[in-house]
Task: structure prediction
Amino acid sequence: MQAKNKTFRMGWLRATYLTVGSFINFLFAIALVASAYAYIIPPDKMIFASYLGLAFPVLLAANIIFILFWTIQRHHSALISIIALIACWNGLWNYTPIHIESDEAVTEGEKLTLLTYNVHNFNNYAPHTDDSPNPVISYIQDSKADIICMQEFSFGNSKNQLSLAQINSALSEYPYKHFTPGNKTPYSQSGIACYSKYPFQEITDIKYDSSYNGSCIYKINP
Result:
């Protein structure tokens, strides 16, 4: 009788252990699928979705561990994470692409180079001088891109900060410029900007309720 009770307790503990483990696995699987498609939700509508998308590699690793764990246990709960991986296959492929075939480089005809760059306040508004060039501006100059789209484009208002005049002077080979203002303080101003070697045919600013978000559509005919 005592042996039967012990066997019953062990069976109950194992069942509880497997049930709780499967439930936790299910939560991680749901989170993985949600993170894979978080890009669909605009960040100005739900900022949490953006952070969930950043957690994709961690959630992916956790689900792979769950698959290995349940496989060792020979338990059907391994299907939970397997189904989740199949459901978010597009997100998985985008995050870890395998370039089996590469496109041939264009060697003939005219080419247009585009640089999109989050300049992150130009290294905290570091001034650009001959003796001490701003590393972000130097990188842009060295790129020789035809069109530059910049996010977190910021400049200061004090003498010891990078000014808009310094930026324009350093990037003087781009005669066509457009700045979409976003957040503004007494000390600085930030937004997005486009510098181009070719004229803008049409510019459309996209308005947001938040001053921390911005978009702009440019039509350019090289």
Observations:
- The mean pLDDT is 86.
- The longest strand covers residues 147-156.
- The radius of gyration is 26 Å.
- The beta strands are 114-118, 147-156, 176-184, 188-196, 200-206, 215-220.
